[in-house]
């Protein structure tokens, strides 16, 4: 029976040969997941022998990983802003870039309003719920609404909210963008909508191969990836009361067109661009 050391070595070699960008980390995560042990355990007890079933389950996941399937789907979990989220193939895997979006919302919200202020935030296109839930954890007195057009995504978001004990703070709504919130006055709006397009490749992702496993509806849209943002702006113009602050994540290559689009529909808002850690334009903030 192979021990932990031999399993790791064999797996690292196999994943290297299939082009994984992080073969050692992949092997560690998958083996820790199967053994239900920490990474520290793996390296503290290299002679430990997993059971036949554990080895079989591990090799099954390694086979999937060697074909490019994302680690998050294989383990069913993804870390985001220091929190653990359940994910599956019904939702987009939370990205590091989106942590910047959350960070910017928290910073602006706290700077502009007392932490105890009873403000209403809306997370449009919530997916796994990672944005709404993280905001709920950091802004406990805020009232949060989260919408998504996909019922399966909302089911998962509900599950994550329950795990993080913020279910009472977040009101999840099924529907198209802002339509479920027609009668709700929104103070702060956050949107990380699908912004990929036909020829799009994620220029910040270490592994574009994994994109084929994620839901296309959560990745791609028309009009060079700006169709849903255009529709969101159109819905905002129809509202009597509009948010004071709007935060949008986008692809750096969309900067000029997105700014022009927001100016067309929301001409009174001031625009500000926030760059990501790679120095690329990533977050558009609109302030009324």
What does this molecule look like?
By secondary structure, the chain is an alpha/beta fold. It has 2 domains: 4-67, Ubiquitin-associated (UBA) domain (Helicase, Ruva Protein, domain 3, Orthogonal Bundle); 77-287, 3-Layer(aba) Sandwich (Rossmann fold). It is built from 10 helices and 9 strands.
Q: How much beta, percentage-wise? A: 15-25%
* Number of helices, where a helix is a run of at least 4 consecutive DSSP H or I residues: 10
The major beta sheet can be summarized as:
7 strands, mixed
Q: H/E element string?
A: HHHHHEEHEHEHEEHEHEE
Helix content: 25-40%
Walk across the major sheet and give the strand order.
5-4-3-6-7-9-8
| The CATH class of the largest domain | Alpha Beta
What is the CATH superfamily of the largest domain? Vaccinia Virus protein VP39
Looking at the overall shape, the CATH architecture of the largest domain is 3-Layer(aba) Sandwich
Shape: elongated
> Could you say which structural class the secondary elements and strand pairing correspond to?
alpha/beta
Radius of gyration, CA atoms, in whole angstroms: 21 Å
Mean pLDDT: 91
Question: What is the rounded distance between the termini?
Answer: 65 Å
Low-confidence stretches: none
The number of distinct structural domains comes to 2
Strands, total number: 9
CATH-assigned fold name of the largest domain: Rossmann fold
């Amino acid at each position: 029976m192979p021990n932990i050391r031999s399993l790791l070595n064999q797996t690292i070699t196999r994943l290297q040969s299939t082009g994984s960008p992080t073969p050692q980390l992949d092997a560690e995560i998958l083996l820790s997941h199967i053994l239900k042990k920490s990474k520290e355990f793996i390296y503290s007890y290299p002679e430990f022998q997993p059971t036949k079933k554990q080895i079989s389950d591990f090799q099954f996941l390694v086979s999937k990983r060697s074909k490019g399937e994302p680690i998050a789907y294989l383990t069913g979990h993804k870390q985001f802003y220091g929190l653990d989220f359940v994910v599956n193939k019904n939702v987009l895997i939370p990205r590091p870039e989106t942590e910047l979006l959350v960070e910017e919302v928290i910073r602006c919200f706290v700077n502009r309003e007392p932490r105890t202020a009873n403000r209403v935030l809306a997370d449009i296109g919530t997916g796994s719920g990672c944005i709404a839930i993280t905001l709920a954890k950091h802004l406990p007195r805020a009232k949060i609404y989260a919408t998504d057009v996909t019922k399966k995504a909302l089911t998962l978001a509900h599950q994550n909210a329950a795990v993080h004990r913020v279910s009472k703070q977040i009101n999840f709504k099924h529907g198209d963008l802002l339509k479920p919130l027609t009668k709700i006055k929104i103070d702060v709006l956050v949107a990380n909508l699908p912004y990929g397009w036909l020829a799009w490749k994620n220029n910040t992702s270490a592994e574009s191969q994994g994109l084929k496993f994620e839901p296309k509806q959560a990745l791609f849209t028309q009009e060079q990836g700006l169709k849903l943002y255009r529709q969101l702006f159109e819905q905002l113009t129809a509202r009597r009361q509009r948010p004071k602050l709007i935060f949008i994540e986008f692809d750096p290559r969309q900067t000029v067109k997105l700014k022009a689009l927001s100016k067309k529909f929301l001409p009174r808002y001031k625009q500000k661009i926030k760059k990501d850690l790679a120095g690329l334009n990533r977050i558009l903030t609109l302030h009324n």
